[in-house]
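Lab notebook page, bench 4
Experiment: in silico fold of construct C2
Operator: M.H.
Input chain length: 281 residues
Purpose: comparison with the prior construct
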Amino acid sequence: MVTAWRPTCLASGAEKSSTADRSATARPPLGDIVHSSPAFTAETGTATIFVGANDGMLHAFNAATGRELFAYVPSANLIPDDKLRLLADPTYNHRFYVDGPVTVSTRAKTPGKTLLVGTLGRGGRGLFGLDVTSPTTFGASNVKWEASPASAPSGWTADDRSDLGMILNKPLIVRTNARDGNGNNAALLPAVAIFGNGINSASGKGALFIVDAETGVKVRKLELPAATAGGNGITSIQAWDEDGDGLHDFVFAGDLKGNVWKFDLNYGDQSKWNLADGGYD
């Protein structure tokens, strides 16, 4: 049996949650969901589905009832006010807003918390990170970071921001071999978010970004060779744990020029991460 449901509330503002029930006849519309990928987790106490929509919001729904738990509107650094206000225009023509894929961490990767990374997809250049450990009490402090050509967390340079395009690929949240010090006995560093820089960036380069999953602080940016620049971008990625120890060793990535690249993260020292075997696979 297939069950369909509509959200019971629609939050407004930068981020709000609602606990008030709404009757079926009073339910406002939910924006169209085109390219965003729903993400499910049951590790938050309340089984929850997260998905982006072209009403300018990332929505969180109770997976059992369809009740909306919260809606997050990215800041003006990601979605300018001039674009957001078009949603209220009676002559509105369809546009994309929070249209990209969403990924949610597991507690095995982020112990004691659940993190979400989502992108705007065709809605704009950039992405965001949220702490969704408790969706029923989500608030402003749970918006952990946003990155766009206008603004980004610590460690990002102006060149990094210019490399950000429309990120169509699903970000990954993974543990790596990176350690806080030398030797195998040094503590493993926290989980990272890995994503390709996407299409239509200002720089036209291809690059793989690796950032702290919780803070968005840049860990590394691994660029493709200069000869591939110009109308390029990394559009899809996948990580590989070669020895099955839960730590991802390699990342494979496709670009707009028909290449598949291999990145080697199989080092405790993050400064050694780079293209593997010349990059091509």
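Observations: The chain has two domains: 1-22+30-151, 166-281. DSSP finds two helices and 17 strands in the chain.
Next step: discuss at group meeting.
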